[in-house]
Amino acid sequence: MDLYKILGVERGATREVIQKAYRKLARQYHPDLNPGDEKAEERFKEIASAYAVLSDEKRRADYDEFGEVSLESGFDAEEARRMREQFGQRFGTGGPFGGAAGQDEFHFGGIDDLFGRMFGGPGGQGRAIRMRGSDVEASLELDFLEAVHGGEKRLTLNRPTAEGGMKAENVTVRIPPGVDSNGRLRIPGKGGLGLGGGEPGDLWVTVRVRPHRFFKRDGRNLTLDLPISVSEAILGAKVEVPTLDGRATLTIPPGTHGGARLRLRGKGVPAARGKQAGDLLVRVQIRVPRELDDEAKSNVEALRAFEDPGIRKELLS
Description:
Layout (H helix, E strand, L loop, with lengths): L2 H5 L7 H15 L8 H17 L2 H10 L10 H14 L21 H8 L16 E7 L1 H6 L1 E10 L5 E10 L8 E4 L15 E7 L6 E3 L2 E9 H6 L1 E7 L2 E7 L8 E4 L15 E8 L6 H10 L9 H4 L1
Parallel strand pairs: 1-5, 7-11
Antiparallel strand pairs: 2-3, 4-5, 6-7, 8-9, 10-11
Helix pairs in contact: 2-3
């Protein structure tokens, strides 16, 4: 049984290629699409079992190194390596796998006495294969405030069963406060069901966060564009700004330039999981009035006497 041939992929295939091949074959041979077809059902089980191994990094590495024996219940890769080394020493051969020097013909699955030591019987015969279930990928879309504050969401998914079918299940996903877009959450034991009593795989949830109307994330800090008037920029002011937990008062220093950043400490993403609360960074945007009467224009003209005539000198030098 070659798991790669079952899925129709090369031995060095990436995880994405393996997943794509599995999905295509699973749809083709799914029992629901082939009612009464026992051969299709058996093929579907083979495909699901192969994917359960090749989609798991550690089990795939063990399979690549030792072959089918790695699928046996109780298989221990470290013990297998020790046995392989002892086998080579026992026969006094110089090859890296216990064969003649420079050859690569040693196949671990053919050494019955090693099987006996690892599995308690010759060749592991009569032992049911016990495999961990495959990991399951899912995605979850959250509102901006849900991601910042955390909480719980219900997710409906299809979990692969040990028989190769699918089982619909509702899973509660706990959202840690401060999770960001493209963050991945691991829910242990909620992946595919194990084979032969093997433990289930894990559920990995990729988070997508919908943008907020005003706030943006910068790590644990939040940023906000704040419009202010010309008089507030020149004379200074105290203005109200929105935060995640209500309004706060921000002091605009006299002579504030457009684009200046002012900070409200502790008003960003709340503290959680040992991390401090972030800050709210407010970027000032000066709004200039569009309609002025003659008196207002005269007052603005009077400001020219106080303006810096070399305001662009450095830029043009």
